[in-house]
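Researcher: Let's do a round of design. I'm pasting the structure tokens now; please hold your answer until I've finished.
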């Protein structure tokens, strides 16, 4: 058994594909998703997912938790350990496997594609690695920890939570009026996550990106995104009744609050939208604005939108993501002296002002241009008040 755990921990085997996350219809039922293994529902997981649903957790979040728990079940099946007998050693096996195994979603079928770990010279963005990111590992640990904490409330599962937690963090949770400057160490097995500055698209690169788009539908949705800061999922849910042509705004279902919220859009975005409707047809009040261009009209999916951006990236040799467009919108707004930081926070729908403050940092492209000017600028000459002898100045200042 020890040898088997070592092999799995070193990522030298693939996890079995047993089980799947199944969507439940209708999604308004007790849980939107459940985990099935061998055609049977995993009751322990379903009970936890039901608790999340009753706590008003978003369905996509429930789906994410279900996938993490399914992976945990596959690890336990590989090392032949029941879920209610799991220990920290078993969690270490999972973390070791995630640190060393390849992520199937990162496999590249094109041999000429940029290699993992390299940096795109046109965007300055690193190419995603072939493995699982530190944030993915930390998310899995959080899900499993919360799952066992939920089971403990009903007297089920191992006596000790197999996912270790930081002693300092537990102590801080039991202490009132804790100073905010107190240092909190990472919990055991938690991975170090680098702080990444928001990456926006420079204006020149943005013009090149829009120029290679093939249809006014794509230009419209990209301009909607860069002028409103809306996410891809938020824009894809826009219906005909949500477009306010007179006040230049669009109503979206916000990701954080699930409320219908208005966001401003630019006149250029509305012109592209009008051109898109002229080429196809106008949509009904309850019909999704963005649709497919070939065959019978169907709602545009996230993966189809992502493929549109991939084709543009292939033509330009870049690796921009759709979320970079949201960063671009925030950077442009934060750089406008006529807009206050609170106004930018309101448009971007950031929960905390500290998130908006990140966009005040200078872009590396602008900083490079300024530094080049700094290098070529003549060094300033020191001048002194007239009336002092040159020898006296040299003695005092060491000239």
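Researcher: That's everything. Go ahead.
Model: Designed sequence:
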């Amino acid at each position: 058994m020890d040898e088997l755990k070592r092999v799995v921990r070193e990522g030298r085997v693939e996890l079995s594909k047993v089980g799947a996350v199944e969507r439940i219809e209708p999604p308004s039922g007790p849980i939107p998703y459940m985990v099935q293994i061998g055609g049977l529902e995993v009751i322990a997981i379903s009970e936890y997912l039901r608790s999340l649903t009753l706590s008003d957790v978003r369905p996509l979040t429930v789906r994410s938790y279900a996938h993490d728990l399914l992976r945990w079940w596959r690890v336990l099946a590989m090392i032949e350990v029941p879920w209610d007998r799991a220990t920290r050693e078993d969690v270490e096996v999972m973390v070791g496997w995630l640190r060393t195994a390849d992520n199937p979603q990162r496999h590249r079928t094109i041999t000429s594609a940029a290699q993992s770990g390299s940096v795109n010279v046109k965007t300055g963005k690193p190419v995603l690695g072939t493995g699982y990111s530190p944030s993915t590992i930390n998310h899995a640990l959080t899900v499993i920890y919360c799952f066992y904490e939920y089971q403990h409330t009903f007297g089920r599962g191992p006596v000790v939570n197999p996912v270790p937690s930081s002693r300092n963090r537990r102590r801080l949770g039991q202490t009132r009026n804790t100073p905010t400057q107190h240092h909190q160490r990472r919990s055991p097995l938690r991975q170090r996550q680098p702080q990444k500055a928001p990456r926006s698209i420079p204006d020149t690169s943005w013009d090149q990106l829009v120029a290679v788009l093939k249809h006014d539908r794509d230009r419209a949705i990209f301009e909607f995104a860069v002028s409103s800061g809306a996410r891809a999922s938020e824009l894809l849910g826009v219906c005909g009744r949500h477009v306010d042509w007179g006040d230049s705004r669009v109503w979206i279902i916000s990701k954080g609050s699930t409320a219908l919220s208005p966001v401003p859009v630019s006149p250029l975005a509305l012109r592209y939208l009008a051109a898109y409707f002229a080429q196809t047809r106008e949509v009904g009040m309850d019909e999704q604005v963005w649709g497919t261009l070939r065959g019978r009209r169907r709602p545009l999916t996230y993966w189809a939108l992502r493929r549109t951006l991939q084709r543009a990236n292939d033509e330009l040799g870049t690796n921009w993501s759709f979320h970079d467009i949201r960063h671009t919108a925030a950077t442009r707004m934060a750089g406008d002296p006529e807009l206050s930081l609170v106004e930018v926070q309101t448009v971007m729908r950031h929960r905390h002002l500290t998130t908006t403050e990140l966009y005040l940092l200078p872009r590396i492209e602008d900083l490079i241009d300024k530094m080049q000017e700094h290098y070529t600028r003549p060094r300033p000459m020191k001048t002194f008040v007239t009336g002092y002898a040159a020898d006296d100045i040299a003695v005092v200042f060491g000239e």
